[in-house]
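[09:14] KT: can someone run the structure on this one? pasting the chain below
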Amino acid sequence: MVLIKVLRFFVLTFVLSYLAVWISNRPGTVRIVWQEYLVETNLIGVLLVFTLILFSLLLLIFIFSKIKNLPRNLSSAKKEKFLILGNESLDQLATNLFLGNKDSLEKDSLKLKKYFGNELFSTIILFNSALGNNNLSSAEKHLKTLKSIPKAKYISIRAEIMIPLKANNLDRAIELLSNAKKDYEGDIWISEKLARIYSQRQEWKLAWESVKSVDDRNNKDFNILKANLHAMSGNNVLESLKISDQSIYVTNEAIKQYIKIKDLDKAAKLVGKNWLKYNSLNVIDTFIKFEVINNADSLKRHKLLLKSLKKFSYSSDETKFALAQSAYEAKIWGESQKYLDEISRDNWDERVVNLYENISKKSEKISLPKVPENMKPIPQWYCQVCKARYVDWQFLCDECSSIDKIIWPKDESIKKRTNLLENPFRHFPKME
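[09:31] RB: done, structure tokens below
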């Protein structure tokens, strides 16, 4: 490559030198007559003038192009500057989202809007920030912007619904949700929100009507909600079980139904199928206590329970306590004591002590052992949203009005659904 360039240079030099020698050997005269003017020069002079004119022309073209492209160049420079500043703002926004600095979100979003000109992204964040800070007037302003963006139709519908939900204007929320459901019949978010409001009003049939047409077999939590509402609206609980067998309420009610129709085997199988998942004594209590006829009936239920829980090797302390409770109901005092003694002393709670006391009252051979000093309280159901505690399961949280969010603390399925890392964006206002 270098060799070719060198050769070109020598060739060009040779040609120019040859032309210069040729012209100098032929000094002729060039005469230009224009009106009254006469210009005489040689060929070299003409070439010099021609070169000067050509150079001036090229200079003018260069200056003109620079002037012509000046706005474009300035715009490019501005875009490059805004790109740098926009990326810095985006980094800052991500940092504040991660750290939960909600007060900075609006400022960061306005910068993004300025530098990137992205109306949708920044407006969504601004809307969420305003809603999270209970600034409904500001949220309304950002909602108008969302409505003006064609591709944000669905988002703007949800955003409009969220404002009356935030203000607890349930009648307006029902109106907006009902209208939205006409266009988005199968939308889970819209259906769930509508069902939630009707559930708060204990209008169970309307709540069920809100969700029954939605079919998403992969959404476990929503199907649990459907099963609960199906049962609570007065439908056959065994049919509810077909919608989802993951609901502790439906499972418990189905056990009752099997007992009513004298099918203890299916009731026991249902307990065994769901025990490891829930670890809730609620289903055990139902099985061993619901509509018991006599002690023979209790003994039969205890044997069936032993068979159903055998596959778990009676491993967990909660399982041991469940069997102790069942043996107690069957009046097998010694067996009940055996299971209680197998429970780790570190896991003793008031339930264990109370059952031990009851056994000791029934049998003179059994006495209450020394109670651990740091005994745990009785486990209680709690709301996943507001952490309110309850003695019994209920569908609706009295404190925060959440539906289907009350769980048993020893529920194994909850552990499986819990992420190892806490959501870094947990501080960001949710569109719910």
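[09:33] KT: thanks! Residues 412-429 have pLDDT under 50 and may be disordered.
[09:34] RB: yep, looked fine to me
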